Task: structure prediction
Amino acid sequence: MDYRNQRTLYIDPKRCMGCRACETVCKLENDLPRGPRFTMVTEIETGEGLDEKLSFLPIPCQHCGDAPCVKACPTGALYKREDGIVLIEKSRCIGCHECLWACPFGVPQFGNDGRMQKCTMCYNRIDEGDQPACAKNCPAEAIICDTVENVSRIIRERYSKSANTMSGFMEEGK
Amino acid sequence: MAETYNPIPWRLHEDLDKYAVEKNVPVWIGGKKVIADRVVKTCCPHNCYDTCGERVYIKDEKVIKIEGEPTHPITKGHLCLKGFANVPKINSPERVKYPMLRVGERGEGKFKRISWNEAMDWMVDKIHELQEKYGRESIVEYAYSGNREHLAKAVAARLWNLMGASKLVGSFCLLSGVAGSVGTVGSQYTMDPHIWAEHADTIFLVGRNCSATNPHIFPFLYKAKERGAKLVVSDPYATGVAAKADLHLRPRPGTDGAMALGMIHWILKNNLEDKKFIEEKTVGIEELRELVEEWTPEYTEEVTTIPKEQIIKAAELFATTNTMFEIGYGQQRYSNGHQVQQALACLAAVCGSFGKESANYDGISGMAFPGVTGFAHNAAVAVPEGAEIPPARMVNIAAIAKAIHEAKEPPIKGVISYRGGLISQQPNVDYTIEAVKSLDMFVTIEQFMTDDTDYADLVLPACHYLEQYGVHPSYWHNYHQILVPVAQPPYECVPDIEIFCELGRRLGYEEYFPKDKTGLDYARDLVGDECDFDAIVSPNGPARHSEEWCPAVPYQTFDTPSGKFEFHSSVLEERGKKFPGHYDPLPRYYEPDESIAATPELAKKYPLNIISQHPSFRTHSQYYNLPWIQEIEGPAKVFMSKEDAQSRGIADGDKVRIFNDRGELENITAKVGIRLKQGVVEMSSGMWVKLGGSVNKLTKLIPAGPRDILAEDGILSDYNVLLDGNTGSYFNTLVEIEKM
Result:
């Protein structure tokens, strides 16, 4: 497929501030009990001394261009839609966890029925012209859902017009 | 056998369809389309800056989904993580479902189910018994901000007034900061964030952990930053918003006031002050000049531990660019909180940061206080017309445990508690529990079995905020939506105001609690007729408050006695002549009551200053019991620096014990990293005592000034909510940590 048209959930780490609203809006949208988590905010501490930095990054399914989970699935339950969204046909899942071994991000979740479930990019909402729940709700407006080409245009516009890259000023004073 | 729930004959039944924005609305749940019966607008009344507009979907009188209200100009259709958790919260099988009477010892948590009739009879008998035995003032409510809206407290106050019960006053959250601010500025206002986002050159955030407590500020911060504005954050803790700052100042806890004085020193020394503003709009600059003489950058660094280069850099930035002061509440949760806030207000004035679209001063909006501005006519509800209201003493909430321990003539023997966690939220848990045990009547109106209910005599099933009326103007922005019940209460739950009305009727005050008066009627009385009330009731709303109450660009003038900003506060000086305490007309710095500098001997034993953020996972103690939240938050944690961990042989993830002379916590997970500097540790507030993580096991009951309410045992006959202060000094707490 042409990856420029692949639909993606882009998270702007300069904007994410770790409020974790995406985690519960996702739980509600997907009607999930305790257990499966379709997105998780990771808190990352890097650097030493004056270079210390704290960042936040939600990690939902990356809907990879060349998705390792789809390749690893022995029953063909996992598949990639025309627009790039990776979905699972649950009735074909045998709960073998091969996808979890293959996924570099630890995305596949297993609920009480033992079958794999994960972020669907809220394809049902997308098909109606709406946004995924997490992108629509993000209070920091850090999550963008669009094609790879459009996301890169949106980010370019956002920061080419910006006077401040949102970090870097007064570095020596930090 | 399945439990059955009985109808409550004295409850008013209202058809809630009238509040529908839309009916038969399709909505996605778990990838399936469900048709909701109606969708209703309301707002979130938790104790939080944002007061979000909400859109709630109802099916079969159950809340099935919540979204942000997209037309709200500030919250813009976004909610925080707790907003969505209201769906499992309101539908939780663990809710208190019916009245329950204690059968075991206090603290055992053993109860038997009783009917509402029996519960009402029990309360009426007990109230009469206490009134006869000890006097009418032996009874007091305990109510705070669980549901922060003002209506239920006003209706309850109507009953307490008729009964002549003691009055609960004050706050343990922010009133010290308010006193310092009101003393210099006069009435309190805030400027809507979209204004400064367009105009400010610099934004200075103090003591405000926005990603947890004010997430909707971020689009405005980012807009300002993309325009080129600089963000400066002062916080001992590396918060989410500090991670976005151009400059993060990290004062030693409790020294933000010293930091401000050091900045003022540098600004005046270098002639950088706003001379026109100071000349035209302020009084007392010479006294301030004298006060800050000693606060050289070197001395300020010594006290605050902030490198002097950073102090100078920030001071110059604030003085030479248009700076928006967005002041939070963390910096004033120390025994010197009133002085800290006064110093910060003086810093803003020296920089001329008042009354401009690009440079203004936000602390808390006066709309936060019912009855203080023109908005909430508290007395219209609390003081029934024609009734004889006996005079009653006041009990300050910031020292309620002390009042229960010490009050005589009469002692406090009955507490009716709603919308507050007495045991988990007051400092010094063990002292509070002893106080509660000495009561003859402890009634809690609760949604869940909390730390408090375990010690209660009677537990009543409370409504979630989505099941009742409310009036909650934001204390940050200026848009308002009345809370309406979106769904009928489940089980035998009753809205708070209806409990107080029925109790009032049964105590013989039928004429003051007419049976057909709805919550909306009371809300209408409370708001008054200076605004178009119907414009803020679903399906309408939200609407902005009037310019008269909340000017778009506030602080063109100051309603202090001089009509100017007062570096030398005449009202604090006057008030201090009347009451014990620390009413200093100038923002003099003094150390927090317990700190490495104030109590060096104690610090040898307990060298670590523990502070507590209000994490995004909870509003105070609420939501802690929900599976979604527990799953995200994980076990109770204490954050500490690499240096402090290393010197104690603690590795990231180790279980530790935290202790001081007041209490101890065990099995807390150490998180070692860059969040804190050496000597400071952090543990979130609001975890429950019975679940092992309440930081208030360690904190001290020492309310911040200016008024010394401990000298009066928390019992007052005269109280000025805006000048007397009293914030729980949660953060001037020293502890030691060891590996388990």
